[in-house]
Each structure stands twice: as C-alpha cells, then as structure tokens.
Design a protein that fits this description.
Elements lengths: L2 H9 L12 H8 L8 E5 L5 H10 L7 E5 L5 E2 L5 E2 L6 E8 L12 H17 L4 E3 L3 E6 L2 E12 L5 E8 L25 H21 L9 H8 L6 E6 L3 E10 L5 E5 L4 E4 L3 E4 L4
Parallel strand pairs: 1-2
Antiparallel strand pairs: 2-5, 3-4, 5-9, 6-7, 7-8, 8-9, 10-11, 10-14, 11-12, 12-13
Helix pairs in contact: 2-5, 4-5, 4-6
Length: about 290
C-alpha cells in the first residue's frame, strides 16, 4: 500500500467499522410523516457548524420549520459563550433543527433549549438506557465511574424574526483517550446499552416532536405543558450550591432553588436574597 493509499484508507467513511455512517434513507422513512413536525432530513459528511448552516438556509428561504441537518463530523461546532465543540467523525450526534413556534409569545421562546434538553434526556433514556441529567441551562450530564461528566450540549439561535435553530451535540461512542478534556464523557463510557446512532437520533427527534407539540398546544406555557415540572425533576443543578458567573464580571454564590416561569435559575444567596439568573455560566460547587 502506498502512503497515498494509506492516507485515503485512514480518512475513508468506512475506516472505523465501529462507527458506521448514518442511514439517511432509513431516517427519512422513520421521521417524515404527512402530519408530523419533521419535513426534511439532510446528512452531510462534514461541516463547520450545522447551526450556522441551517440559520443561513433559513435566512435565504431555503429551509422551513421541521428541517433537520445532521453532520457526521463538525469541525467548528459551537456551544454557549462561543465555546468550540469537536469530536472524531461519526463518534456522536451533531444536528440542528429549525422551529417556527407561531402562536407562542416570543417571550416564551427562551424555553426552547430547556425543552430540547428534556426531550434529549427522555429519548436517550428510552433508547440507550442511560440516565442523563440536565445542568442549567443546556448541558447534558452522564455518570462515568461515579463522576458527573458533560456528554452533550444545546445551543439555540434566532433565524430571522419567526424561527429558531436549535443545535444538539452528543458524545456517543467517544473513548477515554478521545475525550477533549478529562471532565467530558460519552454514552459509551456511561455504560449505554445501545450506541447505534440511527435509533438514538430517531428516539431523540421523536421525543423532541412530542415535547414541542405539547408546549405549542399550551401556547408555550411551561407549567400547563408540564415542561417546567419535568425540567426541574431532571435538573442536576437544583438543590446544589453553585456559582453563577454573570455578564460584567459579576458572580453570585448560593443554592439553586428553582427554575422560574421564564426558565431562569433562581439562586438563594446567604444574604437571604433569591436572585433569578437568565444568562451566565453555572459552576456546581458541591453535590446535591
């Protein structure tokens, strides 16, 4: 084998047989229904960011509600605070969906990333048998060797005036020597009974369709839809002492006691003040 042949073999989509490519035709058959939310599924081999691509497509009028864009590899995936997200090809699920929640007040759209977190955790529990907790506002946590680790994240971005693109990244088969940081985790390392990405993606998207439909039917009301209660039940941040690092180099320390009707984390400080936090970085300081 020549050096060129070896290089080609190393980059082949079949070079890692433990990580087969997604079956886009099977995904379309399973997800696209005449009366369903999902209207299209596209799978690309590699892209910088599925969120950026879908926002651009929506802005150009080339994508409507229910569009799903999946990448086998993301080279410039982004999380909150513009953090970068990268992983080996086909080692995870990297996808974005376009939602246009007409009939829901824009003031309630901030619940979309929390709703997605509930949907992802529910779908993964059903298909992978992994207990996934939620760190406010948008991190997915799994337990690896008794330690809580981040295995995924969610990022929501506006796409014009009428739509939101929600992106999800989940580490599925990442091995210990492939972790970007020691504090990261994956479904495989958490003991998932299933790491086949096709059923995992179908399960997550079906769960998202169900939760989104319930939330829209309730006019975006997080209490009436059951979203607020379900999020709180699965939120690993509640009941813990946390530090909230806020815009303007300000921080507060206290116990996370609730998620309010606007999706904000309510922190009770030692001064007896309950302060709602709508944006910022949350650090867990001790176990619940």
């Amino acid at each position: 084998m020549t050096p060129r042949d070896a290089a080609d073999a190393g980059s082949s989509r079949w070079s890692d047989l433990d990580r087969p490519p997604l079956d886009v035709l099977a995904l379309r058959r399973a997800l696209l229904r005449r009366d369903g939310l999902w209207t299209g599924v596209e799978v690309v081999q590699s892209t910088g960011s599925t969120n950026s691509d879908l926002v651009a497509a929506a802005s150009a009028g080339q994508a409507g509600e229910g569009a799903i864009l999946v990448a086998e590899e993301q080279t410039a995936g982004r999380g909150r605070l513009d953090r970068r997200w990268s992983a080996p090809p086909r080692s995870g699920l990297f996808f974005s969906v376009l939602l246009a929640p007409s009939g829901v007040p824009v003031s309630r759209w901030g619940w979309l990333p929390l709703l997605t977190g509930v949907a992802v955790a529910t779908g993964l529990s059903r298909v992978a048998g992994v207990d996934t907790a939620l760190k406010w506002p948008n991190d997915l946590l799994v337990t690896v060797e008794g330690e809580e680790r981040k295995a995924g994240g969610i990022l929501a971005e506006r796409a014009g005036q009428d739509a939101v693109v929600v992106g999800v990244g989940i580490n599925v088969s990442l091995r210990a020597d492939e972790l970007p940081v020691p504090q990261a985790g994956s479904l495989a390392l958490a003991g998932a009974r299933n790491t086949d990405r096709d059923p995992l993606l179908r399960g997550v998207l079906r769960s998202l369709e169900q939760w989104y439909g319930r939330w829209r039917e309730a006019g975006g009301d997080p209490a009436a839809s059951g979203l607020q209660e379900t999020y709180a039940a699965g939120c690993a941040t509640l009941g813990r002492t946390v530090r909230a690092e806020l815009p303007g180099d300000r921080s507060i320390v206290g116990e996370a006691v609730a998620v309010d009707g606007d999706g904000r984390l309510v922190i009770a400080t030692k001064e007896g003040v309950q302060e709602p936090v709508g944006a910022g970085d949350i650090v867990h300081l001790r176990p619940a």
